[in-house]
């Protein structure tokens, strides 16, 4: 029976664009140190748990050694009294069995403790090293990210402020230049209009003077010629 896959599984994933590749290259060290940090953190947790179990085995060895001595004392005690009282003879085997049992338990726990101690400390050392190594580089990466973010934010704010101040000064100077130009144009226009109308007034006054004075002169000249 032929099983057909759905179309979404048959189609190949779209190729990465240049922006995706840049983002992947930027985030790859972060993801590496992030995964290393969590791996070393959980490994350290596992190592501490194993260390706890190792010390528990050490405690068990001391505990079993104490019981071994206790049952050994019982063994000698029942062994001695079994010669006199037959009633103590089963307790003799009972104490013998438990003394051997705790004796082997003591050696087994002590052996497991010493056998697991060296690789456990080695394991702890490497995971401590990887933990602090990843923590240092992860902190450094986050610090650089935040530093670059704030640096570019303040730098863009500084550029915006510089651009705003430049635009304000430019437009204010343009406004002053326009105002000065308008004032200069107004003064020039006023002076030109004043001089024009004043010269026109003088020209009119001169013509009026000629219009009045010339006939008077001609009349005076005629009267003087007639009198002669």
Describe this structure in words.
- The chain has helices spanning 7-10, 18-81, 89-227.
- It has 228 residues and is mainly α.
- The chain has one domain (32-227).
- Helix 2 runs antiparallel to helix 3 (89-227).
- The radius of gyration is 57 Å and the shape is rod-shaped.
- Keywords: Membrane, Transmembrane, Transmembrane helix.
- The chain crosses the membrane at residues 30-56, 62-89, 96-129, 135-160, 167-190, 196-219.
* Low confidence ranges: 19-23
Estimate nothing, just give the exact number of structural domains: 1
Principal-axis shape equals rod-shaped
The overall strand count is 0
Integer average pLDDT: 62
What is the H/E order?
HHH
Task: Tell me the major beta sheet.
Answer: none
Q: What fraction of residues sit in β-strands?
A: under 5%
SSE-based structural type = mainly alpha
Number of helices: 3
Residue share in helix: over 70%
Q: Using only CA atoms, what is the Rg?
A: 57 Å
Distance between the termini: 157 Å
Topology of helices and strands:
Blueprint: H1 7-10, H2 18-81, H3 89-227
Please tag this protein with its features.
single chain; 228 residues; mainly alpha; 3 helices; 0% strand; transmembrane helix; transmembrane; membrane
């Amino acid at each position: 029976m032929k099983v057909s896959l759905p179309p979404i599984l048959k189609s190949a994933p779209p190729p990465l664009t240049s922006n995706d590749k840049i983002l992947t290259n930027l985030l790859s060290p972060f993801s590496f140190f992030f995964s290393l940090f969590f791996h070393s953190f959980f490994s350290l947790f596992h190592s501490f748990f194993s260390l706890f179990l190792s010390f528990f085995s050490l405690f068990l060895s001391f505990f079993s050694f104490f019981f071994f001595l206790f049952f050994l004392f019982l063994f000698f005690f029942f062994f001695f009294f079994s010669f006199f009282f037959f009633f103590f003879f089963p307790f003799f085997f009972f104490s013998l069995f438990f003394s051997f049992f705790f004796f082997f338990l003591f050696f087994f726990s002590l052996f497991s403790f010493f056998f697991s101690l060296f690789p456990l400390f080695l394991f702890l050392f490497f995971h401590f090293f990887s933990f602090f190594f990843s923590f240092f580089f992860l902190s450094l990466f986050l610090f650089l990210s935040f530093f670059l973010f704030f640096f570019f934010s303040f730098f863009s704010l500084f550029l915006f402020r510089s651009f705003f101040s430049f635009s304000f000064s430019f437009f204010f100077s343009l406004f002053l230049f326009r105002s000065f130009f308008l004032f200069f144009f107004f003064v020039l226009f006023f002076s030109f209009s004043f001089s024009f109308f004043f010269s026109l007034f003088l020209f009119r006054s001169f013509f009026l003077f000629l219009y009045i004075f010339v006939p008077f002169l001609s009349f005076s000249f005629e009267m003087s010629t007639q009198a002669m």
